[in-house]
Structures are given as structure tokens and as C-alpha cells.
Design a protein that fits this description.
Layout (H helix, E strand, L loop, with lengths): L1 H29 L7 H12 L4 E2 H8 L3 H13 L3 E4 L8 E4 L3 H36 L5 H33 L1 H6 L6
Helix pairs in contact: 1-2, 2-4, 3-4, 5-6
Length: 188
């Protein structure tokens, strides 16, 4: 009877481990959309499925990665706010915990990129608009150059609507309104 119970337990543990690997592999494979490699994605997935924070040594033992690769991967995930450094009283080792709230994960990751896109492109637009306008207003500008400047000015001016939309999206994501608008109470 004990052998049968041990066999059932071993079988269930193996199935649990297979399920864990399936989730880890899927999470790691999709991390490329967040700008990280699958191996760095494995760090996030391992932390996400773990029942508490882990040290670098624990992560390295679990994943078999070199200390240098592990440190770089952890730093990238911290910079992206996908994992967090934790401290435990009495412990000198840093602990790391995955961001468990996928909504917060979404906000942290995407809004930084969207805001950067707005800032960089609006800065370029603000600098280019008066230059195009000067070409258009200058009577010495050849007609074909004036027409091209007008076309480009219209094009970048039209793009401001998109950057305004991104700014609203960032604000709504940060405030939580985006999720309130898109999800029913049961889905939150």
C-alpha cells in the first residue's frame, strides 16, 4: 500500500512539475514582446510561480544560469518593474519577487514606452513645425520644396491626435480607469 501511495504521489508531483514547466515556457516565450529574451523570461516565470521571493543563488540553482547572466537578467527585469527587490529582516541577501498583478505589470511596462514615444516624437514635432512653416512662408522657397514642406507639416500636425490619444491612454492606465472601462466587475 505504501509503495502504491508513493507511486501515486510521484506521478502527481511529476504532473505538477510538467504543468509548472508548461506555464514557465509560455511566459518566457511571450516575454520577447516585453523586450526580454526567453532566458530572462524564465527568471520572471520562475519568480511568478514560486510561492515567495527568491535569492539570486536560488534562482541560479533552479535555472542553471551563470551568475553574470542571472544578474543581468534580474537587473533588466527590475528596470522594467517586472520584478521587485525585497528585503527580509535578518537576511543580508537580496530577495526578488515577480510582479503578480498583471494589470500593474501592463501599466509599468507599456505606459513607460508609450510616454517615451509621446515625449520623443512631440519634441521632434515642436522643433520641426516652425522650420516647415518658415520654408512655406519664405517667398524664396521654390514651389516644389514649399509643397513638400506643407505636405510634411500637415502630416506631422495630424499625428498629434495620435500622441494625444497615447497620453490619455497612459493617464487612464495609471489611474485604473482604463481597466474600469474595459472590464466588468467580475473580471477585475
Amino acid at each position: 500500500m505504501k509503495d502504491e501511495q508513493k507511486s501515486i504521489r510521484d506521478e502527481k508531483e511529476m504532473e505538477l512539475e510538467k504543468s509548472n514547466h508548461l506555464i514557465k515556457d509560455c511566459l518566457a516565450d511571450t516575454m520577447d514582446s516585453y523586450g526580454v529574451t526567453p532566458s530572462v523570461g524564465q527568471i520572471y516565470a520562475t519568480l511568478y510561480l514560486n510561492d515567495g521571493p527568491m535569492t539570486l543563488d536560488e534562482l541560479r540553482d533552479e535555472l542553471g544560469m551563470s551568475k553574470g547572466s542571472m544578474s543581468l537578467g534580474v537587473r533588466k527585469l527590475i528596470d522594467e518593474k517586472i520584478i521587485h527587490r525585497m528585503y527580509r529582516k535578518g537576511s543580508r541577501k537580496n530577495l526578488f519577487q515577480a510582479e503578480m498583478d498583471f494589470f500593474q505589470f501592463f501599466v509599468s511596462f507599456f505606459t513607460r514606452r508609450w510616454q517615451r514615444e509621446v515625449n520623443v516624437n512631440m519634441q521632434g514635432i515642436r522643433k520641426a513645425q516652425p522650420r516647415y512653416q518658415a520654408l512655406i512662408d519664405d517667398p524664396d522657397t521654390p514651389e516644389d520644396i514649399r509643397d513638400e514642406a506643407q505636405y510634411k507639416l500637415n502630416k506631422i500636425t495630424d499625428s498629434i491626435k495620435y500622441y494625444t490619444f497615447l497620453e490619455i491612454l497612459v493617464d487612464k492606465a495609471h489611474s485604473g480607469e482604463l481597466f474600469d472601462m474595459l472590464l466588468d466587475e467580475e473580471e477585475k
